Amino acid sequence: MASATSSFLFSSPTFTLPSSPISSHPRLSLSSSIFTSYSCSNYSSFLSSSFSVSSSFLLDSKISRHSSLSSFTVSASAEKKKVLIINTNSGGHAVIGFYFAKELLSSGHEVTVLTVGEESSDKMKKPPFNRFSEIVSSGGETVWGNPADVGKVVGGVAFDVVLDNNGKDLDTVRPVVDWAKSAGVKQFLYISSAGIYKQTDEPPHVEGDAVKADASHVAVEKYIADVFSSWAVFRPQYMIGSGNNKDCEEWFFDRIVRDRPVPIPGSGMQLTNISHVRDLSSMLTSSVEDPTAASGKIFNCVSDRAVTLDGMAKLCAQAAGRSVKIVHYNPKDVGVDAKKAFPFRNMHFYAEPRTAKEILGWSSSTNLPEDLKERFVEYVKIGRDKKPIKFETDDKILEALQVVVPV
């Protein structure tokens, strides 16, 4: 990998899976030499020439960029399932259900997507909802309603699997869990959040790390585990992908294409994890196709590489074919709330997908440099590069730093 990229992308090589429990694995510290970028040729030397799967397994057509597998065999085909996706109508998680539905359908499963609210609402005019025709044209069904009345909305149809990609608290999710149990659903999946982990001096977050007891998702996770014998929880972080309606890379593109400085809080060396949503959907699909392996597990639903905040700005600039001027600031000194001024957390916030790799045999296909190029093409295609945008908070930061903005 070119040195320009290795300065801000971090990964660890994949070795033969150990037989020891996950909890016994050493944690990667930021000072460890394992945070190094490898060339494709060096990476391939770590990998075996074949990979065999004895149980049902999702064969993804996109092999990870770190893999060099000369043969890949599957000895058992996955049972086809009827899957119900309870999908949120807002926030960044809606795109997870969209991609998951499409991947399940492409693998031969039956899918119904129940989206919160009404089909005629203004929210449905935005991505990914305005692309639900792609689900229908692939054989899926889309319905709208209140998840608390899920039984009435789906009209008594039986399902093997339910994914709740909506509720953030027990009051919202409990009715879905209770209905699913009474309706004979065999497997229950839940989209939680990596944000429930307590801060740590030893990043990355791994499954089993301490969580915030007062986080609403925690009570939901516990309730699902108490009710269902076959369940799995997925904790995502930030994501990119076509159809996402929450700004991630767009925040950087907005400034880069207008030749504006990109204000980043702190040093810019904070590590985070940004995954393409196809990684999340492939992990979910793997759990559907191998429910025994996934049962009772919590998965960090993320890619396997970290990126620094400065690195994200540089990668977005590369994708746009432009230069970038990064300025750093202390939110308190300039009088702004970093949560409102910047799309990511102003700290190390980085999880690793260890359980999915070791239990499901899953691998990441996220490739930020290439994925961001695709995202920039769509950014220009929808005309956002020409859209008038106000940068009032940015201007306050830059004025405090005495940074001149080109007119």
TrEMBL record:
InterPro entries: Epimerase_deHydtase (IPR001509), NAD(P)-bd_dom_sf (IPR036291). It holds the Pfam family Epimerase. One of its GO terms (biological process) is monosaccharide metabolic process. Residues 91-301 form the NAD-dependent epimerase/dehydratase domain. GO terms for cellular component: cytosol. SUPFAM superfamilies: NAD(P)-binding Rossmann-fold domains. Transmembrane segments: none annotated. GO terms for molecular function: UDP-glucose 4-epimerase activity. PANTHER family: CHLOROPLAST STEM-LOOP BINDING PROTEIN OF 41 KDA A, CHLOROPLASTIC (PTHR43725:SF6), UDP-GLUCOSE 4-EPIMERASE (PTHR43725). This is NAD-dependent epimerase/dehydratase domain-containing protein. It comes from Coptis chinensis.
